[in-house]
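Researcher: Here's a chain I'd like modeled. Treat it as a single chain, no partners, no ligands.
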Amino acid sequence: MTPITSSQNPLVKQLRHLGQSSRARSAQGLFLVEGTHGLTEAIATTYPLDLICCTEAWLAKHHQLLEQTQVELQILSTAALKAITTTHTPDGVVAVAKIYPQPLPQIKQLAFALETIQDPGNLGTLIRVAAAVGLDAVIVSHDSVDIYHPKILRATAGQWFRHPPLVSDHLTTTLQQYQSRGLQLVTTLAQANCCYWEYDFRQPTVIVLGNEGQGISAAVRQLSDQSVKIPLAPGVESLNVGVCGAILGYEARRQISLASKQ
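Model: Modeled as a single isolated chain. Structure tokens:
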């Protein structure tokens, strides 16, 4: 197979656009998976892939990984691969994955609902936390950062494929659907009377987390069944939304685990 060496090659240009533009991802119904870790998780979860592009050096080292899939392979020079990726030091491989509709997930015990999250690192962290804690689902409002952003996939350390988020076109409607099924909606509020560890997470719950600057919208807050606070030392204004998610998620898991042992 003759390697592609030019950064002006049509395929290289197409894949570069996938990494740089949410509009291109939406139009093509595809997104990039950068790096060996992400590709390994995509293959392990049998996520639909269209194409794998790698350098000859990477192929020589990881050929056994590709034996687990029948996806089309394209060899690129190091320079051509670097022209595609969004990282400064790519490790030699990118894959092209399909975007396909996700059904509304069933929530048996616990989930995150994320409203207008703008930072890819924060969203990636929350997806990684959800996977680590064992949440049933991650619901993301349509006006949040694109869930297929390369930084999000990297921030999840591959867990995106084991816990793919669902984008809700109407978050309030989605939350009302879950409420109608008996789930409680819990939001964070600095002035809440209830500390997070006082809430009973043993009941099926959706933890709602909001925008980094504005927090949760009034419309979503009105739906809330319970507001909880995370106490802060004097002079500390707030916590990062990813940290909030980790605190609440692990407290919920602690309570659920204790209940299962009784």
